[in-house]
Every structure is written in structure tokens, then in C-alpha cells.
Design goal:
heterodimer; B: Rossmann fold; 10 strands; globular
């Protein structure tokens, strides 16, 4: 966050570069759906959607220093809130968003309470229990949730005035939600609450003697984080149009956490990178080995963590540092400097970047193991 | 246990409220270890009070009991309000700012963000003097930068990148952002060069004189602390063995040598 940007340059140069990067990212993000095929646009939509959940998890894990293996459950809660509202009450799509957000915020407040007494592995275990017990519960509540058959609801429809195809319209709606969510996460971190959160992570007792109420802010961190996961889940229902208990097994929670760590903890665009990893790498793994995609996926995670212990965001930062120092020697840096920067924040080009980053070193962990 | 002498020229000049902070029969410790065993002393409003003593005498524990980090028995009243039994956060609300041993800066936050965490409790919109709290906090940032010009230069740097002395300045500045009525300093000289320590103590003196902030400073470096403090209390094994105006403590060279392990007489001139 601001400490990170503070080291990159000073005053106007930094602001100028940030503005240019943002404009470039916005341009790429807006242009993408007209350039790619519908399926690829759908994949990008899913990346954006997961990024919201990861940004929320980042607030809790990356900036708050707590852990949750149960965020898949908040995601599911948001998804089912939207599905049930669309199915039974036939509300509009937009109406489901605030309900899912507020509902998950309150749910998060409730789950923040064990977080006050537990930390580390114990907290992980309690949150994991939540993730494990939710799918069977959803199956039992058949009259509302449709049981193990799940619910099929309307997807987003492109209005006629927009002149867009369905996948494009969906993409833009999700892009808007994601942009607002990421902006909100950023502003939250720069607010009084965010400062308190970071102060607590750095030095709990020093924060407390400055008057930071630990219990309140730990619980709030959980609640905000759950809100983001819930929003993400709600948008998932809009995009997929189908929910079932099996879509939200506890593996989802673990995948979210893995995605966040791979993308980069406590980084502002780490969630986007992590979401791209979660979205694309499993299919790449499938290509590499039909028999055991899980193994390849796992090895790729190990590989990334081996090369980039601070996640892809940390790696991008390091590459940018290297590139900047090389470029200052040959050409003026201002123009080329931001290309590595834009790569992560712009929507990732399909399939290529993550595996290319990971593959050359894929051999390394294996030799380590042998 | 020695009763602190109530009338001294320095303390009397400091204030008309000799019992601003009153500690009576304070016991404190960690689990089974009873570190502080019955302390009685008072600090007048606007006074700088030094707590001296060898390692393990209970100085830091006393300070932590005052700010709620360690549970204590007995009674500690600030302006008539009981402090014991409150959490650190509640104690901070009463205007007690604690600069912990080892500084406790938030290393991932910038210098300015650290200072703003110090103002965490100041959330009101309007102040009695008609200013908004936001402008008051901004003015206080300037005030802190005025005391510590080095912090202004580094305001956008991560606190973790500061030198030890700068971090200590930041920790004190952060505590001042609370606008405390009582400032607790735990071993500010720890791990710092003598010159830096001297500079710090001069600033503490300036803060005390300009803001009338009451200060309790725990120090091993008796000589420096006595230069700044109006009164001093010497602890040994959890009990007060000597109390009085700094001047007297300093002149009581023999006692000081025994309990403080340093010859303070030679450093009399400053």
C-alpha cells in the first residue's frame, strides 16, 4: 500500500505513473471483451469475480494477519442469497447484491467472535469447520435451497439498448462490481480502520496502548472480509446461473487461500493475479497431465512459491525493479517502465502469463524433493 | 517504602495539584512472579518524574501496570479516576499515552501513518475550541514535526526503515498525537547512542515545558533522567528505596552509587 508506493519514486513522477498505469489498465479492461472470443471473455469475468473474494480475504489474512479456511462458505452464502432471492422472490439481479453484502457482513461479525479468542492454527480449524459443515446443511434445507439438485436461476441478460452480447454485458457488470470492490478495499485500508488493522498486525500491544480496540477491529476485519466474499458469491450466481452444494465444497476455501498466497499477500493487485492463477492454472494443469491435474496444479503452486515467496505481485515488483534499473541505463525509463506494471493490473492475457512464469522452474521443486 | 516528600521547590513550582497521579499500595507481576510489591508515590501535574533502578527492579512493570498492560492490585488514580482494572485501550481514552520499551513502532506503516494511529481515538467532529478534530489533528502533526524535524523529512517512509533514534522519536511523537495528560516513557535510551539520547531528553523537556504534559520516565541511565526530571524514585526489588527531588537524589551520591550502580555525583553539572 502507501508504503510500497512510497519507495517507488517521489511526488509527481509517481502520481503521473500511477495515473498512466490506471488509464492503461482501464483501457485494456474495457477493450478486452471486444477482442476475445466469448469463452475467453467468460474466463476473464470469472477472474474479476474471484478477485473480489481474494481482495476480501486479503484484508483479513494479508493486512489483518489472521487466517480463514472458511471463506468458501461466505462465498457460498452470498451465492445462495442471490439464487434464493432470484428463484423464490423473483427480484431483480441488482437487488440481491446489497442483501448478500449485508448478510455476509453480519455473518462475518458472528464469525469474528471466535477469532478474538483463537489464533493461527486454531482459528484455521474453526473456520475450516464452517466450510465443511455448510454444504451438507445446504443439502438438508431442500425446500429453500433445492437440496443437492441446487437451483437454476436467470443469468444476466444484456438489455437491448446496450447492443452487447450476453457475455460482454456480463463482463462489464462484473468489471464494475470488481472495480468498486477493489477501490473500496483500497480506501478501507487507508482509513482509520485500515490503519488500526495494519498497526495491530505489526505490533498488537503497541496498537492497544494507542487506544485501538483489538476485539472490535479483529471482528470488523472478519466482517469486511466476509462482505467481499459474499459479493463475489452473489456475482457468481449472476454469471453462472446455477448453484449447488457441490460447487462450494471446502476445497473452494482452500483454493481461495492458495490463490491469495500465490497472488501476493498484503498487495493491492495480488488478488487479481491470484484470481488469474486460480482460474487458468487448473486448465493448464489439465493440458499437461490428463491423469493427475491436481498434482500438476500443486506442483505449480510449489513452483511459484519457490521462485516468488512473496507471491506473483512480489515477483512483478522485483521484475519491475530489475527492468527499471536496466532501462535507466539504456533508455529513459518513463515510457517502458510501466509495461511490467500494467501486466498484472490489466486483465491478464488468457492462459499465457502465469504458466510461462511458473514453467521454467517447474523442475526445481522436483529435484528438491528427489 | 519511603513516603515521598511532598514539599519541594521544584515540584511546588510545577503545579498546585500534587496528587495528579496517585499510586497507593501497587502490587503487580506476571503469573506467579510478583515483581512490584507495594509502591506508594504521587506525581504532580506538569511534573517530570523519573523511576530509576537496576535491572529487574520492577520499573517497566510499574509502568505497564499504570497503562493496563499488566494487571495490578492496589490503587492508581489519575485526577481521581481509578486506572487499575482497565484495558490498555480504556486507559488510553483517559489520556494516558505509553511509549513501550523497544519503541513498538508499526514498521509497515509510514511515519505519518504511525502518527495518525496515535490519533486513533480522536474521532469527534467538532472540538470545544470550534475547530474540527481533523484540523486539530493536522495541527498536531505539524506540532510533532516541529519537535522532531527529522520525522517530517521521512514522513512518507516506512517506519521500519528508520534508525533506532528516529524510531524512538516516532514512538514519542505518536504518543503525543493522543494529546495525553500523562506520558509514560519506557527506557527511551535503550540501544541508542548517548548523543541521540541526550537530544531525545531535551525534546522531552521541551514537550513538558510547552504542553505541561506530565511525564513518567523509566530509565537505567540515571544521570540523563535526573537532568530532566523534577523528582525521582529509586526502585530496588519491587520496592521504593529512595524518593525525592532530582537534586537531592543526585547529591545523595552514596545511595545512588549503591542502587544505581553509577556515580552520579561526577555528572552533576550535566
Amino acid at each position: 500500500m502507501s508504503t510500497i508506493t512510497a519507495t517507488l519514486g517521489t511526488g509527481r513522477a509517481r502520481r503521473l505513473r500511477a495515473t498512466l498505469t490506471t488509464l492503461l489498465a482501464a483501457g485494456v479492461a474495457l477493450g478486452a471483451p471486444f477482442y476475445f472470443a466469448p469463452f475467453q471473455v467468460f474466463q476473464l469475468t470469472m477472474v474479476l469475480l474471484y478477485a473480489v473474494a481474494l481482495a476480501g480475504l486479503n484484508l483479513l489474512v494479508g493486512f489483518g494477519g489472521q487466517i480463514s479456511l472458511g471463506h468458501g462458505a461466505f462465498f457460498a452464502a452470498g451465492a445462495y442469497t442471490a439464487a434464493v432471492m432470484l428463484d423464490r422472490y423473483e427480484t431483480g439481479h441488482l437487488a440481491t447484491l446489497p442483501v448478500a453484502a449485508v448478510g455476509c457482513f453480519l455473518l462475518g461479525l458472528g464469525f469474528g467472535v471466535p477469532a478474538l479468542r483463537l489464533r493461527g492454527l486454531y482459528l484455521a480449524l474453526v473456520t475450516l469447520a464452517f466450510a465443511v459443515f455448510l454444504p451438507p446443511l445446504l443439502k438438508r434445507l431442500e425446500p429453500v435451497t433445492g437440496g443437492s439438485m441446487g437451483l437454476t436461476v436467470d443469468k444476466l441478460q444484456a438489455p437491448a439498448w446496450s447492443g452487447l452480447a450476453e457475455d460482454q454485458w456480463t463482463y462489464f457488470v462484473v468489471l464494475a462490481v470488481t472495480a468498486v470492490a477493489l477501490l473500496l478495499a483500497r480506501n478501507l485500508l487507508r482509513s482509520r480502520v485500515g490503519r488500526a488493522l495494519l498497526a495491530m498486525r505489526d505490533n498488537e500491544s503497541a496498537a492497544e496502548v494507542m487506544g485501538v480496540r483489538l476485539s472490535l477491529h479483529k471482528t470488523l476485519a472478519f466482517a469486511w472480509s466476509a462482505l467481499f466474499a459474499g459479493v463475489s458469491g452473489c456475482v457468481y450466481t449472476w454469471v453462472i446461473g446455477f448453484v449447488s452444494p457441490d460447487s462450494f465444497s471446502f476445497v473452494l476455501s482452500i483454493t481461495l487461500l492458495a490463490g491469495l498466497v500465490v497472488g501476493g499477500l498484503a498487495s493491492l493487485y495480488g488478488p487479481l493475479l491470484g484470481a488469474a492463477f486460480v482460474m487458468y492454472v487448473p486448465s493448464v494443469a489439465q493440458d499437461i497431465s490428463d491423469a493427475a491435474p491436481g498434482v500438476v496444479f500443486g506442483l505449480l503452486i510449489i513452483a511459484v512459491m519457490f521462485v516468488a515467496p512473496t507471491g506473483l505481485a512480489g515477483l512483478a515488483g522485483r521484475l519491475r525493479g530489475v527492468a527499471a534499473s536496466r532501462l535507466t541505463r539504456t533508455t529513459p525509463p518513463a515510457a517502458d517502465d510501466r509495461t511490467p506494471d500494467s501486466e498484472p493490473s490489466a486483465s491478464p492475457a488468457p492462459a499465457d502469463p502465469a504458466p510461462v512464469d511458473a514453467e521454467p522452474v517447474g523442475a526445481q521443486p522436483r529435484t528438491e524433493k528427489d | 517504602m519511603t513516603e515521598p516528600a511532598t514539599d519541594s521547590t521544584e515540584a511546588a513550582q510545577a503545579t498546585a495539584e500534587p496528587d495528579f497521579l496517585k499510586v497507593a499500595g501497587l502490587h503487580a507481576g506476571y503469573g506467579q512472579a510478583r515483581v512490584v510489591q507495594g509502591l506508594d508515590f504521587s506525581v504532580a501535574r506538569g511534573e517530570v518524574c523519573a523511576i530509576l533502578g537496576p535491572n529487574g527492579a520492577g520499573k517497566t512493570t510499574t509502568l505497564r501496570a499504570l497503562c493496563g498492560m499488566v494487571r495490578g492490585r492496589g490503587s492508581v488514580t489519575l485526577n481521581g479516576t481509578e486506572l487499575l482494572g482497565r484495558s490498555p485501550e480504556q486507559t488510553a481514552r483517559l489520556g494516558v499515552a505509553h511509549v513501550p520499551e523497544g519503541r513498538g513502532t508499526f514498521n509497515d506503516l509510514t511515519v505519518e501513518e504511525n502518527l495518525r494511529v496515535g490519533a486513533h481515538l480522536r474521532t469527534g467532529r467538532w472540538r470545544r475550541d470550534g475547530r474540527t478534530e481533523r484540523t486539530a489533528v493536522a495541527a498536531d502533526l505539524e506540532r510533532v514535526y516541529g519537535y522532531f524535524p527529522k520525522l517530517r523529512q521521512r514522513s512518507r517512509q516506512a517506519a521500519g526503515s528508520l534508525s533506532g533514534g528516529e524510531q524512538q522519536m516516532l514512538a514519542i511523537g505518536r504518543a503525543l498525537m493522543l494529546r495525553p495528560s500523562l506520558l509514560l516513557l519506557d527506557e527511551p535510551s535503550l540501544g541508542l547512542a548517548p548523543l541521540v539520547t541526550r537530544e531525545l531528553f531535551e525534546i522531552v523537556r521541551a514537550v513538558n515545558e510547552e504542553e505541561r504534559t506530565t511525564v513518567i520516565v523509566v530509565e537505567q541511565n540515571a544521570q540523563l533522567a535526573l537532568d530532566v526530571a523534577h523528582r525521582a524514585h529509586v526502585l530496588e526489588a519491587g520496592r521504593l528505596v529512595l524518593s525525592g527531588p532530582s537534586q537531592e537524589i543526585r547529591e545523595d551520591g552514596q545511595v545512588a552509587e549503591v542502587y544505581l550502580g553509577v556515580s552520579v555525583r561526577s555528572g552533576k553539572g550535566g
